[in-house]
Fold this protein.
Amino acid sequence: MTKADEWIRSFAERHINEIIVAALFILSVLLRITLAPKTSWSGDYLYCIAPWVDRYRELGAAAGLSQEITNYYIPYNVFLAFVSLFPMEPWVLVSILSCAAEYLGVYYAWKILTHLSGTGSWRTVYAALSLLFLPPMVLNGAFWKQCDAVYTAFALMALYYLLCDKYYRAFLFLSIAFVFKLQVILLFPLFFFAYFAGKRYCFLLWLRIPVTYLEAGLPAIICGRDPKEVYSVYLNQSGEYHFMFLNTGNIHRLFRSDYAALSTAAILMTAVFLVFWLGYLYRYRERMGNERLLQLAGVTGYACFLFLPAMHERYDYLPLCLVTLYYAYYDRKRLFIPAMMTGVTTVMYCEYLFGGNTLPEEVYAMIGLAACALAGRDLVNALKTGNRREQYVDQDQ
């Protein structure tokens, strides 16, 4: 063995974690670079995003913002108008935005774990990096050209500042997440419950959300669009899809119920579930520390995804990140729980993108329900016993 070999091995022994993390980071980037140019499988890109950008190019950015070109709220329209200014295929900047948001979200996932554990151990880094390789996250932005990573990144920022007791920043970023995607409401029950479980923020901070929503619509109004049309975007979105489920493994696959007949009832029953669930957990509020709030955010968000009507397969993006983050750091022996959730969503993604299926659709609903029930039981057991699993995490770091 030469001196060069000895140096290489010595360097590897001293910096093995840095080498692994660098390799994973580079591979995650290469993975996304490989997928981004493959646009022919994404109907949403071919028939929505690309034509929207072309329309902005035809009209001009300002004139385009004065019209209803997309069904997104104004901030994403501003981004598409920006994309239209560059002489390149829209997928380039669209993919860059989503992928950049993925890395921003992973950074704040790491900050959440670092804050909760009180240590910047390599385990926190690996747990956060694991999010980059979840199949739905890999496919969502780079391949499908969706923007769920954008609102998720801001939602993770909001959660981080909530756990750090920096409440104004928490609601500021929660409101920014809201103006990018309505689906951030899956995190609202956690913020509401946290108020009664020790996070003594002023309840008026909730007003930050409608204020930001109004502010975010101003670019289109300045360009000449009707304010009523601008501010009714989310209202129109909520009534756009008249289906109890859309290519997703939620509970309504089991019943095949009619949207017109039962959609409102399904929303109310979800509210009933939340009242019972959070009311039950309230008795353990003295044990509801930051670690349990992270756990609760994932469980409750995923449960709402399962029970609400008109859910797409992409709408569990944020809960999947939260559930995976918790188990990847605190309870690796039970990683099969987020794996079950992720597996269902991955199948739904592939069914939409590539067609075909392997099992009866009801099976996926049962797997998702089982995974959610197991995650909820883990939370309840931890609260009942007062078990703070995170106290023992550092033993095997």
Residues 14-396 form one domain. The first helix runs from residue 3 to 14. DSSP finds 21 helices and two strands in the chain.
